[in-house]
Amino acid sequence: MIGGILGNLVGGYGGDWWQRNRASGRPMFLVWVGVVLAPFMILYRLSDGPSTVFWLGIFLGFFQLGTFYGPTFGTVQELAPAKSRGTVVAFYILMLNLVGLGIGITGGGWFVDHLIGKGSETPYGTTLLIFTVLSMLSIPLLYVAGKRFHSDKARLAEE
Does 100 score more than 90 pLDDT? Predict the structure, then answer.
């Protein structure tokens, strides 16, 4: 709970600070959060049960999840045309839930079942490790979004 709350606060304030003081947008702040926390996320997935590494990883995992919301929602709202901002944000929330809860959780359950069928000794740990690595594919995408933010905002203002 503390990690998630701190992540929300750091994500919101950090993303806004980043955008005001750097030549890139809020998503670039998430790039650096992802790069710094990536080794911890992998290491804790490989740890054996309750240990300092495991509990630190749990804390940092919820922290990282919390940091995501402020910068992404701020970016979506700032880049959406004023007359359709509410619709764009609602669609964004819908897609987060459909993909994350629909495809993500269902795919994770399917993959665990697949690994159990293949006789894996650690189907849940393996699935979580793979999904953690897959989530790191967002880092280059956030990099592109952060680099393009100001030019996209300028183009939107021209239209």
Answer: no
Which tokens is 68 given? 């995501």
We report the CATH number of the domain holding residue 24 as 1.20.1250.20
- 3-state SS class at 122: coil
Q: Helix (H, G, I), strand (E, B), or coil: what is residue 137? A: coil
- Burial-class residue 140 by CB neighbours within 10 Å (0-12, 13-18, 19+): exposed
Yes or no: say if 67 and 14 are a contact pair by the CB < 8 Å rule.
yes
Domain range for 111 is: 2-158
Specify the pLDDT at position 107: 93
List CB contacts of 56: < 8 A, sequence separation 6 or more.
Answer: 40, 44
**Domain count across the chain:** 1
Q: Name the token pair of 122.
A: 């650690």
62 φ, ψ (degrees, to nearest 5): -70, -35
Give the pLDDT confidence score for residue 5 in this predicted structure.
97
For residue range 15-37, list pLDDT tens digits in order: 999 999 999 999 999 999 999 99
Residue 35 near residue 140, CB atoms below 8 Å: no
